[in-house]
Every structure is written in C-alpha cells, then in structure tokens.
Write a structure and sequence with these properties.
six-stranded mixed sheet; 31% helix
C-alpha cells in the first residue's frame, strides 16, 4: 500500500488492476473412438458396449422437418442456419433426456463441434453434461448415418435430486427480485446476489457448472458465468455464455440483452474474492466486495482486457444507457466539482463508505486523477482532516474508487 502524506490528510493508494487469469475447461469434449474395419462398413464406435447399434441407412430428412419455436432467451440457436438449428434441437433433446445413440439429421460431422458448443453456451441447466461422442456409419466409404451420445457425470436420479436442490437454493433469491419492468434492476440484483453468495475458489468441485455456485458457494469463472446466465434466463432475460481469453488464460463471461440493448457482463471480475485470490496484499482489506467496472459494458470496454472466442456472430455492444455508472449517476465527461459534491454528500455514499467514479475518456480520467488525487481535492468533498482515505484506480476502464469515506 502506497501512502501519500500531506500536511492534513493521507491518501492510501491500493492499485488493484485485474491481472489474474481464470481457467476454463472446454465443455465440448468431443470423443471419437478408433476406426474399426468391417467387411463393408467402417464406424466410429462410442464406449457403449451394452448398446446395440443399427447400421441401417435412414433416409435424410426429406426436406427439413418443421422446426419448433425456440425462445429468444437462447441467443446462439438463433444465430445458426436451418440445418444447424435442427441438429441443435436433436442434441438438446438427447442431452435433456440423458440419451445416447440418437440419430442426427446431418451427415456432416464438421458441424458437430460448433452446434454442440451452441447448445452448451445457451443452456447452463445442462450441468451434468461433460461432452459428447458420435458414431459415424459408412457404406462403401460413404457416410450413411451419424448418431450422437452425450457423456454424463450423473445418473438420472442424481440429476433430479440436484435440480431440486438448485431450485430450493434460488427460491429465496427470486422471492426478492425487484418487482418492476426495468430489467436493469433485475440484472443488478442477481449480479450482486451471485457475488455476495459465491467465493472464487479454483479447488471447488463442479467449478465448470452451476452446481459449484448454487450448492457450494464456490466456483471459478465458468461457474460464475453459467450461474449468472441461469438466473437471468429464469428471470426472462436473454443471456449467452461467452468464452475467450484474459491475460493469456481461458475465461468465461456473459453477453446479456437489457432493455433492448446488448452489453457484456463479467461476474467473476466483479467479485473481490477473485481479485484477491492467492495474494497477500493488505490493501485488499479496503476493497468493497462488489466491483462494477465490468457490469453491462460495451464491446470497446470488454475487449481492452478480454479476447472473445466467437462461436457464433456476436453484436457490437455500443449502448451506454444501462451501464452501472451511467444509471447510478457516477459517469463523468469532465471534472465537475458540483456533481462530485452531490455524490459524496449523498446518503448512498455515506452509508456505503465507498464510491467508484467512471470517466468517458482518457482526457476526463486524467483530469479527475489530477484534481482528486494529485491535487488532493478529494478532501474538498470529504472532511477527513488528520485521517486517511483509501483509493484505487483502473486505467483500462477509467474508474477511480475511494474507501473509508
């Protein structure tokens, strides 16, 4: 912790930029068995020794069977063409029913990875799915059928018991969701609930799915992101699991549609237990439990630190209307002493004992740092003569936070 001593006050600086990585294991673990020769048929056989496979050549769906209507909650599905949508539904049905050896309407194995990823990125409730296998049937070197099998970590009975526990865990949470039509308040409430009830822990069991969050209260980034997605979908808000890289490591976060516009949201990076994980920095004692730097942000903001792995086309997020700092009146396009005075004198800031301010540009950010920190004008708004104020800043997101107010 770096202390700046002046004649009548102390600013305690604790720079807590997010520098840690977050491992995400790919959940599309495609398993293909060794090719076995037969007299006229070559197959890829999954490890299902007790299951009888058929080598009949079913006729491909005559044109394409009529697709059932799928809710807009499931973003990835609606990005696929008609053929992939049909395969998506076939995979989803098989995984939901815990089935194996299900006939697919495609003979193109090259699309299976993408479609499976879309199913998993849309459906966090498939917490028991670890990957998939497929069997390819061939006659005279021509593919005649592909069957699909999920790989499961639980039995049907275990899945049912776990689903019940998750519902019970979330009952109280959902009973307190703000009753209004403003989706921003719903997203904010669930984001805060998730962070307040989850600790970042790389050793947590089931940390790649929602069980770790809802049943253990511990997880890593993929568990956080899937749990956030699950709750938002339950609340009727469209949300997608997004994967990619941060700091050279795999990471997972969310794309969410709020009041008609798309934003990125990273619940893991919003949790102070993540930023402090594995560190002995005593400055972490100053950090509030929730960080809003990555709450409903634009493509420009998220890509400063996150590299997106585009399984499907993702919209450019440019709206600011539902960004936390805009909605809470903490967004600055210039140094504004009058606005700052109102913020620091507000009941919300006095009650919390902390506040984070966000700037619209590098120039505004530099001006705020110069005035509030370098020139110590923070003490014009907070009377802490002879005491200290802790602060931290994130240059990448142009935010400045103050504690012990």
């Amino acid at each position: 912790m770096k202390n700046k001593i002046v004649l009548w006050a102390v600013l305690a600086s604790c720079i807590t930029l997010l520098v840690q990585g977050c491992a995400v294991r790919q959940n599309q673990q495609r398993i293909i068995q060794e090719r076995k020769e037969a007299e006229e048929t070559r197959t890829y056989e999954p490890e299902q020794p007790d299951e009888t496979q058929t080598t009949e050549s079913p006729t491909q769906t005559e044109e394409m069977q009529e697709l059932r209507k799928v809710s807009e909650l499931y973003y990835a599905y609606h990005c696929l063409d008609r053929e992939k949508q049909q395969v998506y539904l076939e995979m989803l049905d098989a995984l939901t029913r815990i089935e194996s050896g299900v006939h697919l309407s495609t003979l193109d194995k090259s699309i299976l990875d993408v479609v499976f990823a879309c199913v998993m990125n849309d459906h966090p409730e498939l917490f028991y799915v670890e990957g998939y296998q497929f069997t390819e049937y061939m006659t005279d070197a021509v593919v005649t059928e592909i069957t699909f099998s999920g790989t499961y970590s639980m039995t049907a009975e275990e899945i049912g018991q776990t689903q019940l526990l998750i519902v019970q865990r979330l009952r109280d949470c959902f009973a307190q969701i703000p009753l209004n039509e403003d989706e921003y308040n719903t997203v904010k409430y669930l984001y805060e609930w998730l962070i307040n009830n989850t600790e970042y822990d790389k050793t947590a069991e089931n940390n790649q799915n929602i069980c770790s969050v809802f049943l253990q209260g511990k997880s890593v980034c993929q568990g956080y992101a899937k749990a956030m997605q699950y709750m938002l979908q339950q609340a009727g808000i469209q949300c997608l699991l997004v994967t990619g890289f941060t700091n050279g490591e795999r990471h997972g976060w969310n794309l969410v549609r709020v009041n008609g516009n798309y934003y990125y949201l990273d619940p893991t990076w919003g949790d102070a237990s993540y930023t402090s994980n594995g560190t002995d920095n005593i400055a972490q004692a100053y950090v509030p439990s929730i960080n809003y730097d990555y709450f409903l942000v634009t493509t420009d903001e998220i890509t400063r630190t996150h590299s997106i792995e585009k399984v499907v086309s993702i919209p450019v997020c440019s709206a600011l209307a539902e960004n936390y700092f805009v909605r809470e009146g903490l967004y600055f396009d210039s140094y504004d002493a009058e606005k700052l005075a109102l913020i620091f004198d507000s009941d919300a800031v006095k009650s919390a004992g902390s506040v984070t301010l966000k700037c619209n540009s590098d120039e505004t950010y530099a001006s705020m740092v110069q005035n509030l920190i370098t020139e110590q004008k923070i003490f014009d708004f907070i009377d802490k003569r002879g005491a200290s104020i802790a602060y931290t800043f994130n240059e990448t997101q142009r935010t400045i936070s103050f504690w012990d107010l």
